[in-house]
Amino acid sequence: NDDQFKKVISHAKEYGYVFQSSEIYDGLSAVYDYAQNGVELKKNIRDYWWRAMVQMHDNIVGIDAAIFMHPTTWKASGHVDAFNDPLIDNKDSKKRYRADVLVEDYCLKIEAKIEKEVKKAKKRFGDAFNKEEFLSTNGRVLGYQEKIDTILKRLGKSLENEDLADVKALIEELEIACPLSGSKNWTDVKQFNLMFGTKLGASADSAMDLYLRPETAQGIFVNFLNVQKTGRMKIPFGIAQTGKAFRNEIVARQFIFRMREFEQMEMQYFIKPGTQKEWFDYWKETRLKWHKSLGLGEDNYRFHDHEKLAHYADAATDIEFKFPFGFKELEGIHSRTDFDLKQHEEYSGKKLQYFDNEDNTSYTPYVLETSIGLDRMFLAVFSNSLQDETLEDGSERTVLKLPAVLAPTKAAILPLVKKDEGLTKMAKDIVDDLKWDFNVTYDEKDAVGRRYRRQDAAGTPFCITVDGESLENNTVTIRHRDTMEQKRVKVEELRDIIKKEVDV
Ligand code: ATP
């Protein structure tokens, strides 16, 4: 799986999806640039989310708040005091780790042992093998599972109680039980604030300390009443936003999974106190449905309900996705009560209340939040789509089976022969016609088979080839990326054929 992940990263570069930031200066750690294809995929994911959340819900509207916010925002939100990661340094390797992530890595190691048992059993039992049953009955597997649960529970408790000494003790114990870093020499665990600071204003004494927002949510909370009043919104209603967020992540690795500058897609749903359970269930189900609609494989998702809750939350779950390095958080769904609005009321001295016409009451709404990282979603889609296939004739192909609705380029138009002016002109005319509706591209370089492979690897769902017969009867062949089937169709039909596949 390490190999698979390396492949994902190099493919993302080779096919113009993701570059390291400032690469000519040897890059900047945990900062990445989206390239010509990546920017399209990212935009399509964002649009797919926006459409499902804003366009398809009558009672959800969008905003685009500034990255800079009044510094008191972050006092009120709790980020100044509590947006910390527990850090631990290894004295021998001089490597710095996020203590909770390190503990999770030990758990992943144990999880790998479970996978190994599964593989062994599969081999032994063949067709009769039932994974579910095996996982719930095999003694060794249950032992491993219990170990993971106890470790995570202890971690949760120690962090909650700010018992950093116990977090260190846990790491030391784990390192002896299943060595990972190869060294036992650790510093104490310390808390480190993740916000990036900057200054507003030129002169030293009048300059104001600002933060780059570490989440987009606060821009929604502080605008709650503005949107509610000007949009004449009735509870329940939602405000959605996509935009950059910044965190000074310590363990910056795993490519675009954890970055210092990333993009979030968040929605805050304002509800009547007392209805939070029902809306929590609704959004859990609705968001999972959204993920599944992309066809990345139903088994690749799971909920991880939080046992340890932030003090303001009364329920929280993560939608986890099976990345090449294991199941990890992709999206968070949180029932946040009235914590955020109440905090802003207190710090701003302004009421953030809703007047309910129906029962003539005023109250501070509760909030249900869905929060997903756009870059993480990108990685989920991209890594899941990248596949190596052995074809019937024994040859290999690499294909990026992106959901057609998300693919950067929907079709490549290829003249069979580059030197034939009739063919190239007809191909370019098709490009000029289709580009009003889709991102399409023209490609005439190399033999047509090589061009097909190139488009397969770039994720283009259709190749349209113009050949000698095309000039005679105005038909072309259209080749499907996933099945590689080719069909001869009329040029006038192309638009509908593509539309059928790429429309949601
Ligand atoms: P993690 O535990 O992985 O650090 P988190 O619980 O801090 O994530 P939230 O604050 O709930 O994350 O943010 C919501 C979403 O934003 C996450 O589910 C994730 O998809 C995304 N996200 C958070 N931090 C990063 C990051 N550093 N890089 C990319 N995406 C991120």
Automatic annotation (TrEMBL):
PANTHER family: DNA POLYMERASE SUBUNIT GAMMA-2, MITOCHONDRIAL (PTHR10745:SF8), GLYCYL-TRNA SYNTHETASE/DNA POLYMERASE SUBUNIT GAMMA-2 (PTHR10745). PROSITE patterns: AA_TRNA_LIGASE_II. One of its GO terms (molecular function) is glycine-tRNA ligase activity. It is found in: Cytoplasm. This is Glycine--tRNA ligase. It comes from Mesoflavibacter zeaxanthinifaciens subsp. sabulilitoris. Catalyzes the attachment of glycine to tRNA(Gly). The lineage of its organism: Bacteria, Pseudomonadati, Bacteroidota, Flavobacteriia, Flavobacteriales. It catalyses: tRNA(Gly) + glycine + ATP = glycyl-tRNA(Gly) + AMP + diphosphate. The keyword ATP-binding applies. Keywords: Aminoacyl-tRNA synthetase, ATP-binding, Cytoplasm, Ligase, Nucleotide-binding, Protein biosynthesis.
